[in-house]
Amino acid sequence: MTGPTWDMTAAWRELLDGLAALDAQFLEGPRAVGDEQGVAEGYRMLTVGLSVALDVYLYADAGRPTFVDVNTPFRRDRSWGGDNTDAYYAMAALDPGRRYRVSGQRGDSAYFSLTVYNEPGPGQWSNRIVGIVNDSDLEIDGDGRFEFLLGPSRPDGHEGPFIELTVDTHVAFTRDYQLDPATGRRVTWAIDALDPPGPLVRTDADTAAALRAALGWVETLFLTVPLTVAPRDAPQSLGHNTPQLANEFADPYQVPDANFGWSARDACYAFASYRIGPGEALVITHRPPSCRFWNLVVWNPFLATEVLTDAHTSINNGAARSNADGTVTIVVAHEDLAHPNAVSTAGHADGALAFRWFLADDVPDRPTVEVVPVADVPTAVR
Q1: Which of 22, 99, 169, 208 is the most buried (most CB within 10 A)?
Q2: 54 and 193 together in one domain
Q3: Are 44 and 75 in contact (CB under 8 A)?
């Protein structure tokens, strides 16, 4: 006599088989990382991705929601997806048919917000921002406390901040940016479902669906990483065939409502890949617009930073010193150099660079990059 056949058993084995195949993304082919450190980081990214995916799908309960950290400046198991060491990010699962109250208390944040994102299909990454509330939209009392509502329709008589949930709503995503993340008090967030959660039942169908969605989520992550770094030099060409080179920023842009992943609607971004050899450094200069917050982050090929306790891989407007003309020069090398705005690649020869500017008055000008010998790097602002 045999026992029941569970779909969740099949889904579990699919998850294991799918994960077992994903290391080929960084071991073989054009995106192979090729060195011991890169391979080690690839396996770390597999486990980080699985951990986040299980939090978002298997353990989440939209009827009993809670915010779960998905990025922090201090947790090595939460560095992924273009994170940074100045911010805390958290996610909570949402049911588009339910009503929610979000409350909290601001700490020492330079900027904080909650964004609601859609899900096109199970396990698929968001491609649209449903709504956003940032600290400028809130009435914050003398103790720093605030609250606002989410739901399928605005409650009668409610005139405060509100996000209307669409049928494809999936998660709420908080952002909390700190000028000094080593000492700053983070925002405390809470979310309460205003409708009864129903009985606590875990079914075969729900578990199988969650495991398959988690696998799809991690597979999508590894369509993005590891990064393919552009060449430092390329043959000259014209028009749309002109390649983007390493050590050269693309034009900054304002995030639209339609996007891939969990971009911040209030931010402008500019990205570059980098490739620097031993004894080389990058001298980056940009003119910050008037904005609430900005930073530059150095990512490894898996679009992850090192945590604050391990390496100095980012700098923000709270720490950066400006030149006399209002520009800011930042020095990037394999190790920290003497310049006051120096940051490190933590020994990586290649990876990615990211500027972000929050609530900027204007889209910034494109930052400039110069590759110079370490011996020629400036040691002071000018």
Answers
A1: 169
A2: yes
A3: no
What pLDDT is stored for residue 245 in this prediction? 82
Check which CATH number belongs to the domain holding 25 and give it: 2.60.120
Main-chain dihedrals φ then ψ at residue 234, nearest 5 degrees: -145, 155
Helices (H), strands (E): how many in the chain?
4, 18
| Alpha carbons 309 and 217: distance in angstroms, whole number | 29
Domain residues for 350?
239-376
Residue 11 lies in a domain: yes
Same-domain status, 33 and 175: yes
Torsion of CA 37, 38, 40, 42, to 10 degrees: 170
**Strand order from edge to edge, sheet including 169-178:** 68-71, 87-93, 169-178, 109-118, 129-134
CA-closest candidate to residue 49, choices 115, 125, 128, 112: 125
Kindly report the pTM of this predicted structure. 0.93
Q: Is there a contact between 227 and 27 (Cβ–Cβ < 8 Å)?
A: no
pLDDT (mean) for 1-9: 84
Cβ contacts of 13 within 8 Å, gap of 6 or more: none
- In angstroms, the CA 294 to CA 309 distance is 21
